[in-house]
Structure to design on (223 residues):
């Protein structure tokens, strides 16, 4: 199953660098995707979403890219800051589905 | 504040006991979801309710049960607790299928 804590994949970046967090999904019927950020001791927070009729969507310092051909989703964070340190989860919703399916999560550590 | 309220924030109890976790969804949200997050696992979906009715069931143990009341608040009941039930339990809500909003969780420690 998925894992958090010691078993989470970890990405370590220098403050000010750009971060790219990747997520592979398996359900070709998924047509809505979300990235969540979970800071230590808190609940996951919505960051950005994208529908399958798009391949890129930008927010403030964040960009989500969707490649439906290879079923891959990525989250890019520009000029990464210490406050970006958290666990990031991707989630997918199947077309006409009722419920999000979450990926296992990636821990982002920002070095000052 | 996400608008989803969970109580209590922390709970310490002994093995074999029963506890009830409470969740109030965001105003206007009809769906409530319960997730479990352990140290060695990600977000494990437990159960979903929509307007008082069970809508979907995930990896929820038979020792666990939930309900959603007419005022839309929900309770998750955990009984015959075991050490392995120690985890963060999150409630989330939504108005429609799609993005869900999480509460800040209840940290359950079984000793």
């Amino acid at each position: 199953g998925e894992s958090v804590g010691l078993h989470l994949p970890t990405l370590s970046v220098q403050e000010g660098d750009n971060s790219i967090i990747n997520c592979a999904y398996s359900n070709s019927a998924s047509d809505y995707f979300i990235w969540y950020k979970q800071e230590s001791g808190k609940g996951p927070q919505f960051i950005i979403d994208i529908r399958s009729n798009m391949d890129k969507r930008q927010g403030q310092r964040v960009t989500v890219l969707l490649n439906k051909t290879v079923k891959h989703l990525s989250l890019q964070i520009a000029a990464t800051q210490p406050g970006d340190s958290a666990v990031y989860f991707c989630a997918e919703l199947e077309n006409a589905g009722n419920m999000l399916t979450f990926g296992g999560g990636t821990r982002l550590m920002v070095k000052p | 504040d996400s608008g989803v309220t969970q109580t209590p924030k922390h709970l310490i109890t002994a093995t074999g006991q029963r506890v009830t976790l409470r969740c109030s969804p965001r105003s206007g949200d009809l769906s409530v979801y319960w997730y479990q997050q352990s140290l060695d696992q990600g977000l494990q979906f437990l159960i979903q309710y929509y307007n008082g009715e069970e809508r979907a069931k995930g990896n929820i143990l038979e020792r666990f049960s939930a309900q959603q009341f007419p005022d839309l608040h929900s309770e998750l009941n955990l009984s015959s607790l075991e050490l392995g039930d120690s985890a963060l339990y999150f409630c989330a809500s939504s108005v429609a299928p799609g993005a869900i909003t999480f509460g800040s969780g209840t940290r359950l420690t079984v000793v």
